[in-house]
Design brief:
two-stranded antiparallel ribbon, single chain, 80 residues, alpha+beta
């Protein structure tokens, strides 16, 4: 995948929840503090401190996706 935007040395450090990239971005200031991920282009919401409930929800979604993938693999193995 190509580079979506350039990295800047100044700005806020953020982790992209989509691709996992750790980047330093200079977010917009109006109306919200957001910036595109330099690696995948998804919108990053920049805040002073990460919200713990959001982190927990993201991890729960990751687990559900892993469980669904495991079910899919088992079903695909039965068909063969």
């Amino acid at each position: 995948m190509g580079v979506v935007s350039t990295r800047t040395p100044e700005g806020e450090p953020v982790d992209c929840p989509i691709c996992g990239d750790q980047a330093v971005v200079e977010p917009s200031t109006f109306p919200t503090s957001d910036a595109p991920c330099p690696r995948c282009g998804s919108l990053l919401w920049v805040s002073a401190a990460p919200s713990r409930p959001n982190i927990d929800a993201f991890r729960a979604i990751e687990q559900i996706m892993a469980d669904l993938e495991a079910v899919h693999r088992r079903r695909a193995a039965k068909v063969r």
